[in-house]
Design a protein that fits this description.
The chain is an all-alpha fold. It has a single domain (about 45-265), classed as MetI-like (MetI-like fold, Orthogonal Bundle), CATH 1.10.3720.10. It has helices at about 5-40, 65-95, 100-115, 115-130, 135-160, 165-175, 180-210, 220-230, 235-265; strands at about 55, 60. Strands 1-2 form a two-stranded antiparallel sheet. Helix 2 runs antiparallel to helix 3 (about 100-115), helix 2 packs across helix 5 and helix 4 packs across helix 5.
């Protein structure tokens, strides 16, 4: 049975993390407010809500920032699934007995990890997309998936390697194949260890998704830039955009925290 103080610590953890985030944001906001006062900047927060939502004939419609947020969530969601798939496949190839598989995995890792994401995004969009008829949305998803998948593969590999060799021997002794051993024995145990670093990788993907605005995708960042160009509400819009990104990552972190608790085994 878990001790009471351990349970209390587990319950407090997300609250403490959220409190730290809020304190940091509050400190940054305070510094920015005082700095802009000295610059003579006049805050116009009352103009921001119209870019979040609009009310017409008693109905609420999403504004440009919310529309951009939906695009960001779509890109991040699809990219996240593909990144984890690429990462797992690459990790399995590196741990396999196939020489060709190991070489392919190593080439993929070295190329992706040693080139900037922005360069990869431009290469896919401006070079590969016209040849293969890939849309801007698909180009963004592919670039993010390949980039984050390379880092996720190391996380998967480390989690798999950390499982004791005896687990493999026990699985083979009862007649399980390699694929069955991975699916039924190894990966369920490894997921408890790789979930926290995978969460950090997911947060990184969400933040990196802001780069897709460079290929004319109207995500949250691109919408913010367009609004600023029209209204000159530089600080108000960027603070709002940053807060929206922060809310997404906080929700993801808290959700994964409770998922991690459900996977944890009490001794």
């Amino acid at each position: 049975m878990p001790r009471p103080h351990i349970i209390a610590q587990q319950i407090r953890s997300p609250i403490i993390d959220v409190s730290k985030y809020i304190l940091v944001v509050a400190a940054i906001t305070w510094l920015m407010v005082n700095s802009t006062k000295q610059m003579g900047y006049h805050w116009q927060w009352f103009r921001v809500p119209q870019y979040l939502y609009a009310v017409k004939d008693g109905q609420i419609f999403s504004g440009p920032l919310i529309a951009g947020l939906m695009v960001t969530l779509r890109i991040a969601g699809v990219s996240l699934l593909l990144a984890f798939a690429f990462g797992l496949i690459t990790a399995l190839l590196r741990l396999s007995d196939s020489l060709v598989g190991k070489i392919m995995a190593r080439v993929y890792l070295e190329v992706i990890r040693n080139t900037p994401l922005l360069v990869q995004l431009f290469f896919i969009y401006f070079v590969l997309a016209p040849v293969f008829g890939i849309s801007a949305f698909s180009s963004a998803v592919l670039a993010l998936s390949l980039f984050e998948g390379a880092y996720a593969s190391e996380i998967f590999r480390a989690g798999i390697v950390s499982i004791h060799r005896g687990q493999w021997e026990a699985a083979f002794s009862i007649g399980l194949s390699t694929s069955q051993t991975y699916r039924l024995v190894i990966l369920p145990q490894a997921i408890r260890q790789i979930l926290p670093p995978l969460t950090s990788q997911a947060v990184s993907l969400i933040k990196d998704s802001a780069l897709v605005s460079t290929i004319a995708i109207y995500d949250l960042t691109m919408r913010g830039q367009a609004i600023i160009a029209e209204t000159f509400l530089v600080f108000e819009i960027w603070f709002t955009v940053a807060a929206m990104y922060l809310i997404i990552t906080l929700i993801l972190s808290v959700a994964v925290f409770y998922m991690e608790k459900s996977f944890r085994v009490d001794y």
